Amino acid sequence: MPELPEVEIVCRGLKKFILNKKIICVESRCEKSFIGEKKQIEGQKIISIDRRGKAILINLSNDYTLMIHLRMTGQLVWRGDENFAAGHPTDDFIGKLPSKQTRVIFEFTDGFLYFNDQRKFGFVKVLPTEEVENDAFIRKLGKEPWQMEAIEFYQILQRHAKAPIKAVILDQSNIAGLGNIYADESLFCAKIHPARRAGTLTKTEARQLLKCACDVMDESIASGGSTMATYVRADGTKGDYLEKFAQVFRRDGQKCPRCGTEIIKIRLAGRGTHLCPKCQKESQ
DNA sequence: CTAGGATCCTGTCAGC
DNA sequence: TGCTGACAGGATCCTA
After folding, report:
1. Lowest model confidence (mean pLDDT) among A3-17, A188-202, A230-244
2. Which positions of strand B lie within 7 Å of protein CB atoms?
3. Residue A169 pLDDT exceeds 80
4. Which fold has domain A4-140?
5. pLDDT tens, A45-85?
6. Contact predicate A26/A44, CB 8 Å
7. CA–C1' distance A269–B5 (Å)?
């Protein structure tokens, strides 16, 4: 999915386009994608929008909350006088909607919000606002890297000493926000091999990795993440913000921007993993 | 408790 | 052309 920076961009767009507006009606086109009662959100006004890790929280005037998780392929698209799209980049950012992948449609007086999700791993869930903190995912969620002290991060690594460092930082209960792209980018930034056992990182390396996680995601947020704006190039052809942003992710076969060594791709923690074998040594 | 693998689902792409 | 398997910007469930 969309990782923390993309979800943050989604939230900013939602604040711009649906905050203080009333949901007229909701259409669920996929049972799996919409959990809860439509009648608890229809007619309600959106009073605030928050983000917890990769989860979006849309708070309604009747003390209910719409929790949205985009998982791997979710995206939110606003169509009104202005258009906005962010999340997993596909042609649905700019194409005709609803599409085959549209799972939920929210109708407003001045536009439509589409929740599209190819693989149906994502969801929209309605729950009482007071129960948000009891939600299994929210309750387990670790701190975001900006809120975490280096020593705290180091202690987490010690607690998972035998697991590969990449697996540890992908686990949202350890640290919130990183996904497959930013895990690889953070590890490249910190010059740490993704397969290193977490317990072998020094305090200095842990501090550096934490800083890199912040920097990499700050940079992505600043550049707009993956949105409609970065999906299409000026010449009309399809762009990919990863081309500009990523140092290693999906760049296997290309040269490391730091040392020129060929970037390789391995499989780790069940995920495609990209690294520079020279900058990121497995043993120190 | 931790670590690691399978699994949910649809679509695309490489390799026969 | 058509088939097949691998894989995908995530998280959970199950097993050891």
Report:
1. A230-244
2. 1-11
3. yes
4. N-terminal domain of MutM-like DNA repair proteins (3.20.190)
5. 999 999 999 999 999 999 999 999 999 999 999 999 999 99
6. no
7. 9
- The catalytic position among A12, A51, A52, A54 is A54
Can you say how many angstroms the Cα of residue A187 is from the centroid of all Cα atoms in its chain? 17
| Contact of A263 with A253, CB cutoff 8 Å | yes
Distance CA A158 to C1' B1 in A: 14
The question of whether A271 is a catalytic residue gets the answer yes
CB-based contacts of A108, cutoff 8 Å, min separation 6: A18, A21, A22, A23, A24, A80
A2 is annotated as an active-site residue? yes
> For residue A6, which of A247, A179, A190, A168 has the smallest C-alpha distance?
A179
Q: What are the residue boundaries of the structural domains of chain A, listed by start?
A: 4-140, 145-275
Q: What letter represents residue A142's amino acid?
A: G
Which amino acid residue lies closest to nucleotide B4, measuring CA to C1'? Answer: A269
Q: CA-to-CA distance for A199 and A211, rounded, in angstroms? A: 18
Q: Is the peptide bond before A98 cis (omega within 30 degrees of 0)?
A: yes
Residue A103 has pLDDT above 80, yes or no: yes
Determine the nucleotide nearest to A270 by Cα–C1' distance. Answer: B5
Cβ neighbors of A122 (< 8 A, separation 6 or more) are A1, A33, A68, A69, A70, A71, A72, A73, A74, A103, A115
List, chain by chain, residues whose CB lies under 7 Å from nucleic acid strand C: A 1-3, 5-6, 53-54, 69, 71-72, 88-89, 119, 121, 136-137, 140, 170, 172, 179-181, 225-226, 240-242, 250, 267, 270-272
- pLDDT at residue A93 above 70? yes
A64-69 and A74-80 strand pairing: unpaired
The CATH architecture that domain A145-275 belongs to is Orthogonal Bundle (1.10)
Average pLDDT, chain A: 95
